[in-house]
Design goal:
The structure holds two protein chains of two kinds.
Chain A: E1 3-5, E2 10-14, E3 19-21, E4 24-26, E5 32-38, E6 44-50, E7 56-58, E8 64-68, E9 73-78, E10 87-95, E11 102-105, E12 109-114
Parallel strand pairs in A: 2-12
Antiparallel strand pairs in A: 1-4, 3-9, 5-6, 5-10, 7-8, 8-9, 10-11, 10-12
Chain B: E1 4-7, E2 10-13, E3 19-25, E4 31-38, E5 42-51, E6 54-57, E7 65-66, E8 76-78, E9 87-94, E10 102-103, E11 107-111
Parallel strand pairs in B: 2-11
Antiparallel strand pairs in B: 1-3, 3-8, 4-5, 4-9, 5-6, 7-8, 9-10, 9-11
The chains are: A mainly beta, B mainly beta.
Chain lengths: 115, 112
């Protein structure tokens, strides 16, 4: 069965520091991968997605992610974190089981940003 | 504006009192889904729908019902809510796997 693992439950970084959030997936075929962000009290906003082509994808808010098939990973990165990036981040993979594109989420990583 | 609209945003109810959370999308999407979010567990799928009159169970369907009589609407029904259904609920819709899902703003439900 498809699954997504986000090994880090909480991460704290200083403002201006670089960030990498880890995501590992389990999926037999080429996966459709997504990163979502959830600010406090808000819904989920799509940051970026990968389904084919260039393995380094750019998203909104200065985020990027790199798909590495050999490591079954899709880590999210940002060169310089801003205080407004404090939020919860979810990695997800689309499962096409039964012809339906069900989105399977990781447990999330909560990011805190210190001034 | 393309969006998924859920109502209500907040709801406090008592055990056993039937309730419905509405969800509507204006993007003509075929796929719609309900998720619940609980601390440490991420988002878990409750029910999904591939099109009108086509629905199926997700990972945690017990205690919930859904219907899809129209393409735009996908209400979540709790016939007899219990305290373990206290959670944050999200409705989402999708036109294709390539585009992922668009999420509503969420409904925070408390069952006392």
């Amino acid at each position: 069965a498809q699954s997504v693992t986000q090994p880090d439950i909480h991460i704290t970084v200083s403002e201006g520091a670089s960030l990498e959030l880890r995501c590992n997936y389990s999926y037999g075929a080429t996966p459709y991968l997504f990163w979502y962000v959830q600010s406090p009290g808000q819904g989920l906003q799509l940051l970026l997605k990968y389904f084919s082509g260039d393995t380094l994808v750019q998203g909104i808010k200065g985020f990027e992610a790199e798909f590495k098939r050999s490591q079954s990973s899709f880590n999210l990165r940002k060169p310089s974190v801003h205080w407004s990036d404090a939020a919860e981040y979810f990695c997800a993979v689309v499962s096409d089981s039964g012809g339906y594109n069900m989105l399977i989420f990781g447990a999330g990583t909560r990011l805190a940003v210190h001034p | 504006e393309a969006q998924v609209t859920q109502n209500p945003r907040y709801l406090i109810t008592v055990t056993g009192k039937k309730l419905t959370v509405t969800c509507s999308q204006n993007m003509n999407h075929e796929y719609m889904s309900w998720y619940r979010q609980d601390p440490g567990l991420g988002l878990r799928q409750i029910y999904y729908s591939m099109n009108v009159e086509v629905t199926d169970k997700g990972d945690v369907p017990e205690g919930y019902k859904v219907s899809r009589k129209e393409k735009r609407n996908f209400p979540l029904i709790l016939e007899s809510p219990s305290p373990n259904q206290t959670s944050l609920y999200f409705c989402a819709s999708s036109g294709s796997r390539v585009h992922g899902y668009t999420f509503g703003s969420g409904t925070r439900l408390t069952v006392v």
